[in-house]
Amino acid sequence: MAKKKDKKEEKKTSKKEAKDTKGLSKKVQKIVDSVKKLSLMEVSELVEALEDEFGVSAAAPAMMAAPAATGNGAEAQEEKTEFDVVLKEAGAKKIQAIKAIRKLKSDLGLTDAKKFVESAPKTVLEGADKEAAEEAKKVLEEAGCAVELK
User: Fold this and answer.
1) Which secondary structure element, helix H or strand E, spans residue 33, and what is its range?
2) 133 burial via Cβ count (<10 Å: 0-12, 13-18, 19+)
């Protein structure tokens, strides 16, 4: 009976150790425990030293794993942070379109704004953040223009 109790305790102990080490070998767990005691600056130095020593980058595996984890190609794309606002057509309200272009591109005079509107499709804003692009799109659509965000 004593042997059965010992085996049960060994199984409990080994399961507990497995949970503690998260499937790591004893050597690796020892290193992880040592790294936990380091400051952030020391960890940064360690990462640099390991990258130099072995010619690898610590960031590469994480970047490669992220798209695969999503599972859907559409979701795998990063959210855009820069947008181009393109005037596709001026629409029926040409005067309002010219006013909207002058509002968005204050450096254009009346003649230049008219030429800009007439030469559509044309990019109004390049590399704008999402908020500015949405605002520009709203202004142009209120003026009756057809607009596209790229």
Assistant:
1) helix 26-36
2) buried
Residue tagged 């795998």 (tokens): 76
Q: How far is CA 117 from CA 110, 113, 124, in A?
A: 11, 6, 10
Closest among 136, 139, 140 to 83, alpha carbons compared: 136
pTM: 0.46
Cis peptide before 61 (omega within 30 of 0): no
**Predicted pLDDT of residue 61:** 46
E-state strands within the chain:
83-89, 122-128, 146-149
Structure-token pair, residue 56: 């690898």
Q: Name residue 142's amino acid.
A: E
Partners of 83 in beta bridges: 128
Q: Which residues pair with 125 in a beta bridge?
A: 85
